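Give me a protein, keeping tokens residue-aligned:
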Amino acid sequence: MQAFTNNQSGLFALEMLLRLRGGTVTIEDLRQKVGEGPVGVTEVLRSARAQGFRARSRSVSWDKLAGLTLPCIAGLRDGGFLLLGKANEEKVLVVGANSPRPVLMMREEFEAVWDGRVILVEQGKAGLIPRLDKAVTMRARQALATTARWGADNTRTAVSGLATRSQALQQAIITRSTDEKRLRSLELAFLPAALEIVETPPSPLGRIIGLSIISVFAAALVWACVGTVDIVAVAPGKIIPSDRTKMIQPFETGVVRAIRVRDGQNVKAGDVLIDLDTTTVEAELGHLQGDLMAARLDIARLQAAIDNKDNSLAAFKPPADAPADLLQVYRGLLVSQGSEQKAKLATIDGQLAQKTAERDTIQASVDKLKSTIVPLQQRVEIREQLFQKELGSKVTYLTELQDLVAQRQDILVQEKRGNETNAAVVALVETRAKTVAEYERTLFDDLSKARQKAAGLERDIVKAEQRKSLQRLTAPVDGMVQQLAVHTVGGVVTPAQTLLYVVPAESRLEIEAMISNRDIGFVSAGQQAAVKIDTFNFTRYGLLHGTILSISQDAIARDKAPGNGSDKTSGAANDSSEPRGQELLYSARISLDRTQLAIEDKQVNLSAGMAVTAEIKTGRRRIISYLLSPLARYQHDSLRER
């Protein structure tokens, strides 16, 4: 872009603004309108109006810039002009006469050069009709006029001239196109954001990439519709003997007393493998047996006390194997218990006899007092008559009356004492009966507890004897000892610690494979399986083949290994109803067609414990159905409530 002076910056800004408003004017056209003199606000307004636009100048503050119809022309303090495109509270987008591209100016920077005036330009009411550049139009007219003047007799010269004019026209169009492209980026920067996106031409690279993606997708779609893949159920597992390897484990913590086998030794069923120390178990067993004998003696003692209260010692029937010292103790306890009860009853009987005698004495006193009431009553009546006839004194009458009242009160007191004594006698009778009942209840309760204790001790003795027998580890089957883990007499073993393995003799090798819950519906007994031995690379040493013998009827739940969230089977769904953190597996047993592999020109026998992977082919499916299966599942599961 050519350099402009401050005198020409107004024409440059006006040209850019008119182009943004739809005009096709050039800076040369504007110069012809204003001449070669200085270009100020008046000249800019006159030039814009000459092109059919409405133009006006106004002074505004910074806060009102964003509300104007932008873009517009901003006047500068040095007499120049800037094309103002966009404005906000902090900065503006402007283009100067000598700027190759739009620049952002901060508010302070812009206000330092801005004189506060703007020139607003809008289209006229009739609008503008886009025109070709005048230079292009003139060249086209000259070419056509020249061709028309030339006659047919000078055809060659006419054609040559036409070609020259055409080249000039083409050059003018190219020049015009180049100028427009150079200004196009500046024009787009001043359009609103939405129009800037619409007017910006698309990049051809996007179309090329889009067509390439469509082509690849179409080829992949055709291949997916035609191609098929195998559906394979992958089941990891290991080689096991058909009779399973037997683990030898202690029942509880113990100390090794003797080791009677060594690694690789052949044993028969029932042979002793390891002896553990039985001191603790024997001590506990002896303690339990002593407690059981004491419980049985308690039962015999209590039963004798219940059966014969007067002579319980005669009814005492202890166990035949009871020690003599314990018999003496329990006989003494039986006699002491009976004597204690008799003493309690004797005490109550003595109190009862005392209260009965006291009651009889009180009753006799009451009878005596009642017998004197009648004479006293008569004496009072006689004294009353004499007093009324004034033959006796009143004092004598009152004395006799007082004696009668006192006698009656004494009778009442004695009767109440008699009632109290009767109540005491009744209470003592009830106390005696309660004591007898309490004694019998205690005997029955103690007898019941003793019998329960004896029954519990008998069960504990059975368990202790079983524990004692478990301290001697024996071979469950005929086989060979492997992986002996203890070699120190006196060493400590823990519960469920594997001390050794016994591999059953003459047992064929099989595979125990774990089939996923997702695949079990497509696997059945009798299907063929390809077996990979993890120890030997199958790409180098080949595969083994086998037949599924049996499948468990129920799933085995086990913890899911970390990172085992993906399924190895093709076409498996990504979701699962298995318990969180667990996986459900079915155990399958697979027979092998051979138990040897050719390794480096020699036959190597397979051994129990080798890890394997069994691949069971369950069918084939097209690739497109494999890809669409998630969509089909989502379609089925969507738009449902609960």
The CA atoms of residues 304 and 315 lie 5 Å apart. The mean pLDDT is 79. The first helix runs from residue 6 to 20.
